[in-house]
């Protein structure tokens, strides 16, 4: 009995790890000198909020500040910062189709002839897929130097507890590769 408990526990941990629900990607300017960046502030993106609430905005902002400060960057609101940060969601309407086949067949064989009817039913389902995007811009040159996204991070958040769990994890995963080495 004990042999079954360990594999079952490992399988459940692997299943939980595989269900992150989002994929992270990033890109950056390879010519930027990231070592000189020490302070940051926010700028407002013209891309808008994309339908997120101010509560979601607070979650993302708090997570971004926490991650950047944990990496040694200081928030600078009085003087010019080294870089500016913005974040915004992108929400897409996604669709998928399911088809159900039911019925009998017909043919020639054991019995001289047999037959039946069949039918198929297709349905189109839609859902909202939400992505968190974080952009970092050099303050002096006003050029984007880094961008990261968690595609699907805002998908399927059914209650505040889900959002409180997923958003900080997604922001941490996005900023894991900032600054590039």
Automatic annotation (TrEMBL):
The secretion signal range is 1-17
| Membrane-crossing residue ranges in chain numbering | none
Keyword Signal present in the record's keywords: the answer is: yes
> Can you tell which superkingdom this protein's organism belongs to?
Bacteria
- Annotated keywords: Signal
Q: Which residues form the DUF4136 domain?
A: 24-180
Q: What is this protein called?
A: DUF4136 domain-containing protein
Protein source organism: Geothrix edaphica
Q: What is the lineage of its organism?
A: Bacteria, Pseudomonadati, Acidobacteriota, Holophagae, Holophagales
